[in-house]
Here is the input.
Amino acid sequence: MSNKISFSSDYTKGAHPKILERLSQTNFEPNTGYGTDKYCESAAGKIKEVCNCPDADVFFLVGGTQTNQTIIDMLLNTYEGVVAAETGHVAAHEAGAIEFSGHKVLTLPSVKDSMAGEKTRYSDQIGKIDAADLKAFIKAFYADDNHEHMVFPGAVYISHPTEYGTLYTKSELTEISNVCKEFEIPLFLDGARLGYGLMSDRTDVTIQDIASLVDVFYIGGTKVGALFGEAVVFTKGVTTKHPIPVIKQHGALLAKGWLLGLQFDTLFTDNLYFDISKNAIDMANMLKEGLISKGYQLYIDSPTNQQFIVLEDDKLKALSENVVYGFWEKLDDTHTVIRLATDWATTKEDIDKLMSYM
Here is the structure.
């Protein structure tokens, strides 16, 4: 494993050197706990400024699964569930964490190519939910005379980028936001890989757009240069009367909260978060060009740091001797879809080495 090159995910490395440097510099400095320190205050201020959202409430939580579970629990009544794409992270890859907290995930179909690698008009829709489908789902719920005996759609969950590396356009986000406003349902955007979505050269969405269109989102640190941690932004202010106890109940409140605040304070100083996110996109584009030049079949034309390709199983076995990749799904009896992910620290040398094994 140690001699292999890893492209399995974007959380396989530690943290940006500037973060490690500041952690070292402040290591013996005493701070108040649970997010009440000066670093959390400073980081929250910088985030509100970059989002152009002065009335926001910002909290720093320890990891993505706890963050998704905590936010959804805050948004919902006991009889409500959260609407998400069937491919959404909360529906597919969080071990039932939402259901464990007492809320059902109400899934909508997401568009998926009928044939891997073919460029169809739906290719940029994979992993996303459609505003019209969402509206139809909610209208059908309330049209059912038995809806008082059913799980209510109490919030909507989307991720940007999606599990497939695809992105919502500003128009699509606006349409979904309008549906949520029509039915008075909060919209929650999972931003575990937000930096990579914002810095894609094929997006028209800014962080200010997101802050204006959703009720709550989070800025991922774990996958974008931090040791760990996510910054949650309630754009219109948190609706829960006492948020800290709820965060703590979900195991997401860090006693040494300044370790989170200091990391995000560093990431949002001198544009660092966006610069290192752009690196991942540049390296992903280089990777994609190399794969195409060697004749590999793209499963999805992803505009972000996650690249998906189709490999014959015999080739995959040989590749695994030198490369750690992410298994995605079996395509057929002899082909597998894998994911190769770049990140904030990927270098050109890493790409060149990977391509030498392809």
